[in-house]
Amino acid sequence: MATETPPETQLPKLTNDEISRYSRHLILPEVGMEGQQKLKAAKVLCVGTGGLGAPLALYLAAAGVGTLGLVDFDTVDASNLQRQIIHSTATVGKLKVDSAEIMLKGLNPYMNVVKHNTMLTSANALEIFNDYDVIADGTDNFQTRYLVNDACVLLGKPNAYGSIFRFEGQASVFATKEGPCYRCLYPEPPPPGLVPSCAEGGVLGILPGLVGIIQATEVIKLILGIGDSLAGRLLLVDALSMQFRTLKLRKNPDCPVCGIHPTVTALIDYDQFCGIEKPAAVGPLEVARDKAVGGAQVIDGIPQIAVEELKRKLDAKEDFFLLDVREPHEVPIASLGAPLIPVGEIEKRIGELAAQKDREIIVHCRSGARSQKAALVLKNAGFTNVENLAGGILAWADKIDPTMPKY
Amino acid sequence: MDIHIPTPLRAYTGSKQTVNVTGATVGQVLQQLTDSYPELRQHLYTPEGKLRSFVNIYLNDDDIRYLPGKESTPIEESDELTIIPSIAGGRYF
Ligand SMILES: [Zn+2]
């Protein structure tokens, strides 16, 4: 562990109620009274209270970690509850940190919850991290991953890392004194938009549970100083084949942050590093809507059509070709009845659209992101009149057909 | 030998989780892989033909960047090659 554990005499005493609660730990020689006191003295920061952070924080609270910090600026949405078991139906709409506190305190009233209802940024990360012994990274984007990593390396605090995609997960412990960091493994993030995005891709709800509990296990081991941590190893979890593999990770002597001659010695602009535009004050959906209201909005040469305009064209039986670029399994959920070519197959199947080359084509998906990419592919292939349905099915459900489900 | 394809890249291998290829070196089997599935190429290599920095290729449990022979490391039929994607939760490469 990064910080020195105070000698046993300085560790906080357990009350009789705590002794009863933690008896299954106390009779385990690897934990025992001293270990349980170390847990009570420990301060762990969970970055994110989503899919990974939910089981992670719950198990750390149950185990008796004395202080749990929670960083999240989001509110609970019904679609979170398929995996974020720290929240509940009753707390939909509440701040995630408040919702999580209710569940954690209900599980274990003897621990402290410190709520950081804020977006983690380069301006506040070091100050927030400073008060904690171990950081657990349960975020969902590359900018925050690199921010958490660099802050951990700069402060010398271990980072219990977990990440998931669909049916696959990764876990490790980064930024220990001797071990590698996230940048040793991935010096740079992938550029956004390299892949035609199915980024709206799902995740098997129990997978973050599996990976978050592996992170929690690593946190507990770091606090207790027992076992072999995942530092220097990357655990790969494949939930479909149910196979676990570990690969060797090495500290890269040329690592820009933890190497011999580091070039990153302070936190940087991680949006810029990851090639992401600064988040707007309103979400992308709102931006798309507002722009559409003004009419004739064009992004990268693709005119953006509002759902109201599509409705008008449909009602007027205008001549145009509507194309759905979602995945086939999304059609049964909600559909505008358009022919389907998934965004990833557009280039390969472009011949099927040959007859539409000079016709007006309106491309749609769930939110307007994938259809924008598909529209660009068509335009670059010589299609002369391609437009994107701003806001996609979601906007259609909001503004045109309230009976349509949003997913 | 078998190359393990991670979920995000299976869209380019016809959903195959493993692809069987033959070759004498790491570089040769990767070449054969991208010949069989040309769409994979841009996800693994830069236009200049360099392995992308956010793609990690493991021979058994070692990163090929740390093997003395790197991409010219000889391989045997029983070896396994694994492509490790950069995943961040919601997004991936
Ligand atoms: Zn490093």
Offer a few descriptive terms.
heterodimer; A: 407 residues; alpha/beta; Oxidized Rhodanese, domain 1; 5-stranded mixed beta sheet; 14 helices; 13 strands; B: 93 residues; Ubiquitin-like (UB roll); 2 helices; binds zinc ion
How does this structure look, described?
The complex is a heterodimer of chains A (407) and B (93). Chain A has 407 residues and is α/β, with parallel strands linked by helices. Chain A has two domains: 8-273, Rossmann fold (3-Layer(aba) Sandwich), CATH 3.40.50; 297-399, Oxidized Rhodanese, domain 1. Chain A is 31% helix and 16% strand. In chain A, the strands form two sheets. Chain A has an eight-stranded mixed beta sheet, with helices on both faces. In chain A, strand 2, helix 5 and strand 3 (112-116) form a beta-alpha-beta unit. The longest helix of chain A has 18 residues, at 207-224. Chain A starts with 15 loop residues before the first helix and ends in an 8-residue tail after the last helix. Chain B has 93 residues and is α+β, with helices and mostly antiparallel strands. Chain B has one domain (2-85): Ubiquitin-like (UB roll) (Roll), CATH 3.10.20. Chain B contains two helices and five strands, in the order E-E-H-H-E-E-E. Chain B has helices at 26-36, 41-44; strands at 2-4, 18-20, 56-59, 62-63, 80-84. Chain B has a five-stranded mixed beta sheet with strand order 2-1-5-3-4, with no helix packed on it. Chain B starts with a strand and ends in a 9-residue tail after the last strand. The mean pLDDT of chain B is 88. Chains A and B meet through strand 5 and strand 8 of A and strand 4 of B.
